[in-house]
Structures are given as structure tokens and as C-alpha cells.
Amino acid sequence: MNEQxxxxxxxxxxxFKVGGFGKTGILHASDNLNFxxxxxxxxxxxxxxxxxxxxxxxxxxGIYKPTTGEILFTGQNISSIGKKELRGNMPMVFQDPFASIxxxxxxxxxxxxxxxxxxxxxxxxxxxxxxxxxxxxxxxIPGVEIINRYPHELSGGQRQRLGFAQSLASKxxxxxxxEPVSMLDVSIRIGLLNLMRNLRxxxxxxxxxxxxxxxxxxxxADRMIVLYAGQIVxxxxxxxxxxxxxxxxxKLLMQTAPQSREQIANFGSNTNDMxxxxxxxxxxxxxxxxxxxxxxxxxxxxxDPQLKSIDAFRKLSCFxxx
Amino acid sequence: xxxxLLHVNDLSVAYQTAKxxxxxxxxxxxxxxxxxxLAIVGESGCGKSTLLFAIAQLLSNPARISxxxxxxxxxxxxxxxxxxxxxxxxREISVVMQSAMNALNPVLTIEAQLSDVCKAHxxxxxxxxxxxxxxxxxxxxxDPIHLKSYAFQLSGGMRQRAMIAMAMILNPKLVIMDEPTSxxxxxxxxxxxxxxxxxxxxxxxxxxxVTHDMHVVTKFSDRLAVMYAGEIVEIGKxxxxxxxxxxxxxIGLLDAxxxxxxxxxxxxxxxxxxxSLLNNILGCSFAPRCKQVQGICKTQTPPExxxxxxxxxxxxxxxxx
Lengths: 322, 321
What we know:
The structure holds two protein chains of two kinds. Chain A is α/β, with parallel strands linked by helices. Helix content of chain A is 33%, strand content 23%. Chain A has helices spanning 53-60, 83-89, 107-118, 124-137, 143-146, 156-168, 186-203, 214-220, 238-243, 248-256, 261-264, 298-302, and strands at 5-20, 23-38, 42-46, 68-73, 76-77, 92-93, 174-178, 206-211, 223-228, 231-237, 308-309, 315-316. By secondary structure, chain B is α/β, with parallel strands linked by helices. Chain B folds into two domains: 6-92 and 172-275, Rossmann fold, CATH 3.40.50.300; 103-169, no CATH class. Chain B contains eleven helices and twelve strands. Chain B has an eight-stranded mixed sheet with strand order 6-7-8-3-9-10-12-11, sandwiched between helices. In chain B, strands 2-1-4-5 form a four-stranded antiparallel sheet. Chain B is globular, with a radius of gyration of 21 Å. Chain B starts with 5 loop residues before the first strand and ends with a helix. The model of chain B has no long low-confidence stretch (mean pLDDT 87). Chains A and B meet through α7, α8, α10 and α11 of A and α7, α8, α9 and α10 of B.
């Protein structure tokens, strides 16, 4: 693992005001997060909807401003980096490939615009060559033909590849991928996951992969960060977490995730958990998972657990397990 | 299988387009026994939702049933008029739609929507409707207090359960579910499936369940049908198909999932895209994407063969027989 840190997030919180009619509260979308992303590394943020994954991505992209905390991108605070430079270095790939590409322009348009903005040294012909090259890098072959198509002529998987080609155009250091495969068909997903791994290995780009699917996170990510109700509950190398999950929430996710083909034939009913992640409005102290937790003790209701290192690579936020 | 609840025979559905008919469902035949759970899986565009809509007689222009029959308790649904169908709906056959947020009325409470169903299909009085509404809400583990809630006040999982409560209210014999879990989180998905399973055991209805995610149904369905380009390419007992899939497409689908356990291995998925349904496909529709394609696959439609009680359409397997 390369030790150079691309992105460092310290004590990050994002709160929103909610309500009205005299009944206002503060929604804690993200609370006190600390994590980092190294050079050419895929880090997965795993959690259910409402766990604050997209809030993190949007703050990193400069759409929200953090309530507290600091976000350093290659050592520089992101609030001091210009929006254009920030988005060139840290572009985003969105969840919905049908809504995130302008339908009235040809495929080449989006890439060409990015190139114009972020690599002004190229002339028109060079940009076209670069665009074809980018399309072929993401597996849209033959690039010379696809560059003149319209988005409706591409399938969902091809459009999402185009999304990656557009974000690669500015030669980024880190790509924010917000659920890039969840809208795609299962037979196509794996191709995109493989693409992300290739980009890491060949282009040396880091990816923050946001997902609710633990199995795909294990497949591509070097490290995994498990979020629950806006807080990190567990962090560590993907293989370690999957082989030996510590936090009760990670265990619950493991139980509900798709199992391997070999296991299914003799696999019984798994869980009766009917809970859902809470909306954290004006939180009281106590572990936010405690009301769903099968091993909760009284301390869990009264005190906030802290994220602590349990060995050289892993961190855990739980009073019971260690 | 002597008694059948539903018998679909050689059903075809076509969408009329400017370029000619697109056949979305092609010569599909299957049976459903009382109390049975049949899952239909396939990629988007394989015709699985169209098939469900055809069975529920909910197709509207430009789609039409271009051939075949659908028998529900020996009654051909294609021949029924609107009033006869209205009699069947909700009481005999009910449908749970994919997106509960869009399927529930946003300006009416859950209670109003439940009583709407009862008033249209029964002569129950207010007291009876209220009692039954509370019963079904409890059945799906929602506090009856939420009868007074609007759809937006419920979470995604609860909305979907409310949809199921509505489908249960008149105790139908067949419940058709069109991807009820696909908009939900993994944990909510699995709890919803457990819930459906429990209800099915208690009430004994049959389920026709469409999904693109095989793993959602593996633990719950009795039988599995795999659709590709409008055809059922493989149908049989779920456990047997999982243990020993026959059709190259099924094998590809099963191998497209990264796993959480065992050795991490390189996966490839299925290259290429499903064919356009506009063209009449010569031979096997999966041939252009198949790794084991042979000469015969491109010219002749594969016949259906039965191997280990799994019905499958593939030349590789028919030549082995």
C-alpha cells in the first residue's frame, strides 16, 4: 500500500436544520468522521440509505460546506482550492447513468468540455485524439465510432463507462463514485467493477467507492469504512472485515448480503431484524445502533462509543466487541 | 402437478413500434400450483415485467397479447370482459408494484386507500373494513397507528410492506410482485422477504415474483424461471438450479456476483448486450454472447429438454441427451 495520502478528513461533521412551525431540530447527517484515502487506493464507504454516505461525497465535491472539521486534499484545505481545480482533481461519477448525461449532445461533447476546461494546452485535434483514447481506456471500443453517438444509443453500462471517461479527462487524483453500479443490471455490474480496479492499477487513480453492497466493496476495495447513522462504526482492510467482522452492524450487513452460490443450497432463514437506521435529529448520548443491537449493554444507551484502533489497521466503535 | 392455479400456455406479447412489432414475451409456458412461489429472473428488457402485466391483464397500448392463453383456475383470462376481470382483481389476484412511493396515493392516508379497495370489491361496512385494515397492518408488522399516515411519513421498507398489506386485504389466491425489493436497502430487503415467506406459510397464497437479483429469492422461492430476450431459457426447482445450473446464461448470471465468503476470484460477467427484440432472431437468442456457442446455435432454435427435472433450452444440452 502506498503511503502517500491524497485525501484526509478530520473531525468532519455536517448538520442540517430541519423542521418548521416552531418544531426545529438539527439533523446530524455526518458526525465526527476521520478517514483518509491514499494514492491509488480504492476505499469503500458502506452503509444503508440515511447513513450519510452521499453527504460525505457532496461535501467533498464542494456542494456542501462542512459544519465542523477539516478536509485536506493533497495537503490543502478544500475550501481554499478553487471549485474548478477541485472538481478537476476530484470529479464525481453519479448513480443514475440515465439522468447524469446530457441527452442532446453527442458522447464526445462532455469529454471535450472537460478537456477544454482542465487541459487548455491541447488544441482541437489533440482533444479529439485524447477523447477517443479515454473512451477506449474505459472499454468503449471503437472510440472513433462511439464518440459520435448520442447517449440514447448507449446502454446503461456503457453510459456509466462514459461517466468514468468524462471524469478521467481532467487527469484526476481521486474519483468520487456514488453508487455507480446500483442502477445497472447484475450481468453488467461486474464489468464496471473490473473497470474501476483497472483504473486504479493502470491510471494510478484513487477511488472513493460509495455503496450499500458489501460484496462488491470486498471485490474491489482495498479498505472499507462502514457507516451507520452518520458515524463510522468500523474501518479496516476489506478482506479482514469480511473474514472477521467485529461490529454488530457489520455482522448484520454480512448476514443480509447476497451469499455465495455454494452456500445458498443449505442456507436457512437469516435475520428478523426489522429496524431501520434512525434519522439523527438532536441526538442524545449513546450508541446509535444500540436499539437494534443484539448484544447491547446498558452502557451503550448512555455513552457515546469512540472509534478506536484495535490493531495496526483496524478501527472499531463498540463497547461490547473488541 | 394435477391441480394448477395458473396455467400459462404459449404466451406471446408484442409491442407495436414504428419499425414493426417487438416481441417482448415469446412462447412462454409455465404452471403455478396453489401456494407455490415462482421467481422469474432476468436482465432489464428481458420481458419479465411485461409477462406479469400480461398475466394481470394490465397491458395497455402499444402492447398486446399476440398469442397464447392464460388460464386462472381453468378460466381463460384473455376472454374475460372488464367487469369479469374487476371481479377477479384484489379478491383473487392482486399486484404489488415495484416502486411503493409511486404506487401509493400521496394525498390519501393508508387507511383511505385500504378502504377504497374494500368498498370497490366487497359490501363490508365501515367497522368490518376498519377491523380488517388493522389486521393486515399487523400481519405485515406495521403498527396500526400508521393507518392514519400518508405514504411520505413511512420509510421505504414500511411503504413496501403497506403495499403488501393492501394486496393481502381481500385474501387473494395469487399475489403478483414486480421487483418489490429493488428500491430497498439490503437489510430491509431481507426482512421483507422473510415477511413475505411467513405470510405465505400462514395464508397459503401463491406468489409470482419478478426480480433481476437472483440472490434475493434463492432462499424463498420454490421454483425459478430464468428469462432471456423474452423466452424462459431455464425453469426448475430453485435449489437444483443453484446447485447445478444448466443454461450458459444462468451460469453467467450466477457467476456475475462477487461473493462475501470464500476465495476472492476474478469475475468476468457476461460480455455484450441482450439482442434487440425487433428483429426475428434466428437460432438461439443467447448465441452472440455465449462462450460455448456452436454452429447449430446460429441457425436452429434450441428445443426444450428436461435434465434432472429442470427444463432448459440449449443445444449443448440437447446434443448431450
